[in-house]
Each structure stands twice: as C-alpha cells, then as structure tokens.
C-alpha cells in the first residue's frame, strides 16, 4: 500500500465513535458558554439521499469553524461519520482530533494536495460518511467577495461519481446580547456527475457561486435579526452583567413582572 493509502486507512481507523460522542457533548456546553445561541437558518439541513457520498463545504470565518462542524455533524447528521482536513502541524499539536474525524494535510504543498485527494476519495467510498471542509484554506470575512477556493474540492467534483455537495454558510455576529450569535445556513444540495464535462476551474466557479448565494442569504437574515427565521440548535446564556441583571431583576420583582435576562425581549 502507498504512503497515501496508509494515511487514508489511518484516518478511517483512528475515528472513535465514543470519543466523538464525548467531545461533542463538551462542545455543546462550550458553545452555550461562548454564544447567545447557535442558529440554523430555515429551512435547515436539506434532505440528502441515503448512502450518497456527500461533501459539506463552507466559508472559513475563523478558529471556531472546525469544531462548529463537529457540533453540526453530531446534531444534524448523527448516522454519518463526518471527516475533514486539518493542517498537519495543527494536528500534531492536537492529536486527539484524529479520533473525532480530522485528518492531516500539508498546507500549500504538492504533497498535501495529493494527500488530500487520496484520503478524501477513500473516505467517500465508505457508506454513511461525509466530508466537511473550508476550501478557502484561510480565514476570510463572510462579507468579502468574491470567495476563492483552492482546487482540491473541484478535483473531487470531477473524479467522484455521484458526489453531492451541500454549501454551508457561517457567520459569527452580534445582535442584542453580550455574547455573539453563531449563524449557519445550508444551501440546496447539487450533484457532481464525476465526469470530465467541466474543467477544474469551471467546477471551482460553480462551487464558489453556490456558496456565495447562501452566504448572501445568511447575511440578509443576520441583518434582519429575527430569531424566528432560525431553528435554535444550541441555547446559550443571555444577560449583560451580574450587577445590571440583578438591578433589572429587582425592578421586575417590585412591579410584579416576570424577569427575562435577555437584553431585548420580543
């Protein structure tokens, strides 16, 4: 077996359902502590035919993205094993991430590109698995346009028959509370026939445009600030500060009103 093949098998064998389950339970509490809420824009996760190879791909806003994906995998696709690439130097630092589905890629090298494609193709051969990735390869503001992808994901579109793509738009933004909102929007799935009917650059443009469209939808919803447009995946804490909230509680008590710690209630 080639070195690339060994890495692909290692990614599959390293995955531990038990460690994944324990880790995402921790992530639920971690997101609740750091965000007002994790919200998914309606209509939510689209229906995907069972046993199809799937890639969820999104914009790369910041450090939170990989662990947000793990949370989404656990809450929204519990019957799938989700995998994703991560810089090999980061994985050396946080080796346990192998156990929850992340596999190493040497960033910005020919070796890394070959490594990514070989591992991704092998994972997509397995039933009930999916890939989650941020093809920009670097952090980018969600309002920046155009978004530019690295070529790896477009190569997979040409090479994997029946591959389904689902865009995932992400924003971290402040509304009315002290903590930010974590906002997610899934786009409609679309299929790559796995044929040489489009060039890599053409496929890359298709993938970029589909994600940009959903990012624009999410930005509009974020500006609107209407939580009823979203499903709440994780509920965090509200409130401004203990002294301020205590004073508001006393005022509500004196008036016989019900107290809400939310800065602005609808």
Task: Describe it.
The chain has 266 residues and is an alpha/beta fold. It has eight helices and nine strands. Strands 1, 2, 3, 4, 5, 6, 7, 8 and 9 form a nine-stranded mixed sheet that branches. The N and C termini lie far apart (61 Å). The relative contact order is 0.18. About 4% of the residues have low confidence.
Tally of DSSP helical segments: 8
Give the percentage of residues in beta strands.
15-25%
Terminal Cα span: 61 Å
Poorly predicted ranges: 241-251
One letter per element, helices H and strands E, the order comes to HHEEHEHEHEHEEEHEH
Structural class: alpha/beta
Overall helicity: 40-55%
Which descriptor suits the 3D outline?
Answer: globular
Largest β sheet strand count, sense and barrel closure: 9 strands, mixed
Give a count of the beta strands, DSSP E runs of length 2 or more: 9
Q: Return the average pLDDT rounded to an integer.
A: 89
Task: Give me the Rg, rounded.
Answer: 20 Å
What descriptors fit this protein?
alpha/beta; 41% helix; single chain; 266 residues; nine-stranded mixed beta sheet; 20% strand
């Amino acid at each position: 077996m080639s070195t690339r093949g060994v890495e692909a098998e290692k990614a599959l064998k390293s995955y531990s359902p038990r460690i994944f389950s324990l880790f995402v339970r921790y992530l639920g509490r971690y997101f609740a502590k750091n965000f007002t809420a994790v919200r998914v824009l309606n209509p939510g996760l689209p229906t995907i035919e069972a046993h199809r190879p799937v890639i969820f791909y999104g914009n790369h806003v910041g450090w939170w993205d990989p662990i947000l994906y793990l949370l989404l995998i656990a809450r929204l696709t519990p019957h799938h094993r989700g995998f994703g690439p991560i810089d090999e130097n980061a994985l050396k630092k946080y080796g346990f991430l192998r156990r929850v589905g992340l596999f190493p890629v040497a960033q910005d090298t020919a070796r890394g590109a070959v490594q990514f494609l070989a591992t991704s193709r092998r994972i997509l051969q397995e039933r009930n698995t999916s890939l989650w990735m941020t093809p920009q390869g670097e952090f980018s503001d969600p309002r920046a346009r155009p978004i530019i992808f690295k070529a790896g994901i477009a190569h997979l579109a040409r090479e994997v028959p029946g591959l389904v793509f689902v865009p995932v738009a992400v924003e971290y933004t402040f509304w009315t509370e002290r903590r930010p909102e974590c906002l997610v929007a899934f786009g409609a799935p679309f299929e790559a026939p796995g044929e040489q009917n489009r060039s890599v650059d053409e496929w890359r443009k298709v993938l970029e445009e589909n994600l940009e469209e959903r990012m624009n939808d999410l930005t509009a919803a974020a500006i609107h600030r209407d939580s009823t447009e979203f499903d709440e995946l994780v509920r965090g804490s509200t409130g401004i500060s203990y002294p301020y909230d205590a004073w508001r509680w006393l005022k509500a008590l004196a008036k016989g009103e019900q107290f809400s710690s939310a800065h602005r209630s609808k």
